[in-house]
Write a structure and sequence with these properties.
There is one protein chain. The protein is mainly α and 538 residues long. It has a domain at 2-70 and 108-223: Serine Threonine Protein Phosphatase 5, Tetratricopeptide repeat, CATH 1.25.40. It contains 21 helices and 10 strands. It has helices spanning 2-17, 22-27, 42-55, 72-81, 97-100, 111-137, 144-165, 201-219, 233-247, 250-261, 269-272, 301-305, 312-316, 323-328, 367-381, 415-428, 432-446, 458-472, 479-486, 499-502, 523-528; strands at residues 86-88, 181-184, 198-200, 284-288, 319-321, 339-340, 393-394, 410-414, 490-491, 507-508. The strands form 5 sheets. The chain has a two-stranded antiparallel sheet with strand order 1-5. Strands 2-3 form a two-stranded antiparallel ribbon. A two-stranded antiparallel sheet has the order 4-8. α6 runs antiparallel to α7 (144-165), α8 (201-219) runs antiparallel to α9 (233-247) and α10 (250-261) packs antiparallel against α16 (415-428). The radius of gyration is 23 Å and the shape is globular. The two termini are 15 Å apart.
Length: 538
């Protein structure tokens, strides 16, 4: 880390306050801000937090970074693409092709590997500065403003370490956390920035749990967040639920999930079908509120995932649902409506070899019907005439202004996820009635014929949880870590994905026997951290 982490510590204030406050910038030139100034007052520390909120989706690179990975806007769809759950219908313009072929995360020199690592350590470095400066300055931690800063800083640090240890180390439930190598644990502020060796997975999880509990304690004295871009006590409980689920602490996961979703009502059918493009949705616990001045255009989440975004990635490469999963959705479940199995395959370069016109599309017998169907899709969703369509394409994520490149919000956490966390945890505890009770509100909200009583055993409940997570959270970035937690491999034989396109990503063994699920540590980290050698590489 240490070539890059040095830069991050030294430049953190400069990077994060930029664009956060016109008054601050008018009074303090960015070229003259000392590292300590950003932490010299509660007001300035809030600016630093605002910078972290923005860094969740910002395109502007960190020191030594790349603008091609705009925070969570890239990594959320990536984690679904790599598992073949969010399926590419064609090679498109190349974005994520190496990832879906399992060439990125297995390459220590890839941009994705380095950016996920250094972006997360950027959050950790900033959180360390906030936490340690508050302690050193002797602030009263029960003061609502200080409590809010601490609550968010601890939550960000817990979130970042969980992302790191669950991605760059063997999964907690499929490995031996007491001895498996985790990631470097950094809690200090200031020179000499010597970094650390890899701590064990267990040590990192212990710190994560300390941090998220400290966050919840601090939030107990804080006022409510001004908007959903800010972490709150509900978001902290949501992070706690995710962490506990990933380590098999089922009771904690269930309890924290209930606390996280409190006050965030499940979406109505019309809201669920509205495009998932705003944090104003009732279920959203935590999300990124993107404004025009901060948009990332062709590095945005909707550029990668929305069929209505006017960018080359989706005009040529509509994302499709796994056909096996689609066929499991009952007709009484309105979520089935956001997938179109009869959308004509208008792309002659589609990976299934059936694109271009009615002569190759098995759903149509003449061009008149073929192009009429395409026109109907285009007009219904406001796409441009340059957009291709494809069977089983999704319409879950829609731009507020379709056919444009206007910015839209990101959603990081919803209450429906928390119902599913509780249901999974209760099922794993063999609490059949408890798991049914957790599934019932979500299932009945989505499916008019839902009968939770048919899932009458742990195995049946777990299969239902897996199905519900796939359909409900499709495209929201959970698949990779779900596969690791469940120890499930990848087999896209009947999914609609193309073997020619997906190559090594088409079939992969389960994580417990396949170390390719563990991301490579960036080569720059191995080279720059004096506490790591090639022997530490995954």
């Amino acid at each position: 880390m240490l070539k890059k982490i040095n830069l991050l510590f030294l430049a953190v204030s400069l990077v994060l306050v930029t664009g956060c406050s016109e008054e601050f910038l008018e009074n303090t030139p960015t070229t003259a801000i000392a590292a300590g100034d950003a932490y010299a007052s509660p007001e300035n520390m809030v600016l630093v937090l605002n910078g972290l909120h923005r860094q969740m989706y910002a395109q502007s690179p960190l020191p030594g970074g790349s603008s091609s990975r705009a925070g969570q806007q890239y990594f959320m769809p990536m984690f679904d693409v790599y598992c073949g759950d969010l399926i590419h219908s064609s090679p498109g313009n190349g974005w994520m092709r190496a990832g879906l072929q399992w060439l990125n995360h297995t390459n220590a020199n890839s941009t994705s590997v380095s950016q996920l690592w250094y972006q997360r350590y950027h959050f950790i470095a900033t959180a360390n500065n906030l936490i340690n400066n508050i302690a050193d300055a002797g602030y009263v931690t029960s003061d609502p403003e200080i409590a809010n800063i601490l609550g968010q800083a601890y939550a960000y640090r817990a979130w970042a370490y969980h992302q790191l240890v669950s991605t760059y180390a063997k999964g907690y439930l499929v490995g031996n956390p007491a001895t498996d190598a985790g990631v470097p644990l950094l809690l200090v502020t200031g020179a000499p920035y010597t970094s650390e060796a890899r701590s064990t997975v267990q040590v990192i999880y212990d710190q994560i749990e300390l941090d998220i509990n400290a966050s919840i304690t601090a939030f107990g004295n804080a006022s409510s967040p001004s908007n959903k871009s800010h972490l709150s006590i509900n978001a902290a409980y949501g992070i706690k639920a995710r962490v506990a689920l990933s380590k098999g602490d089922w009771a904690t996961a269930a309890s924290a999930a209930v606390s996280a979703r409190s006050g965030f009502t499940l979406l109505t059918e019309s809201a669920w079908k509205s495009g998932f493009n705003t944090t104003n949705l009732s279920e959203v616990i935590w999300g990124g509120r993107v404004i025009d001045a901060e948009t990332t255009y062709f590095r945005s989440y909707f550029y990668y995932i929305s069929p209505t975004f006017n960018g080359s990635q989706n005009r040529s490469n509509p994302k499709i649902v796994n056909i096996e999963r689609f066929n499991q959705i009952p007709d009484t479940d309105y979520r089935k409506d956001v997938f179109n199995p009869l959308a004509p395959n208008t792309n002659g370069s589609a990976s299934n070899g059936q694109g271009g016109d009615s002569s190759t599309d098995p759903n149509y017998t003449n061009d008149t019907d073929f192009w009429a169907a395409w026109s109907d899709v285009i007009s219904t969703y406001g796409m441009t005439t340059g957009h291709n369509t494809h069977p089983y394409m999704h319409f879950k994520f829609l731009n507020k202004n379709p056919g444009t490149i206007d910015p839209d919000d990101l959603i990081y956490m919803r209450s429906s996820e928390m119902y599913l966390i509780e249901a999974e945890a209760k099922a794993m505890l063999d609490d059949v009635a408890g798991a049914q009770a957790a599934l019932k509100p979500l299932g009945e909200a989505r499916d008019t014929a839902y009968d939770v009583t048919v899932f009458s055993s742990r195995d049946l409940l777990m299969e239902q949880v897996k199905f519900q997570r796939y359909i409900e959270l499709y495209g929201e970035g959970f698949s990779w870590h779900d596969h690791i937690r469940w120890d499930v491999g990848i087999d896209l034989t009947n999914s609609g994905a193309s073997l020619v396109l997906y190559q090594d990503g088409f079939i992969q063994g389960k994580p417990s026997v396949n170390d390719a699920w563990i991301w490579k540590i960036p080569q720059a980290e191995i080279d720059g951290n004096p506490n790591l050698t090639e022997a530490d590489q995954n």
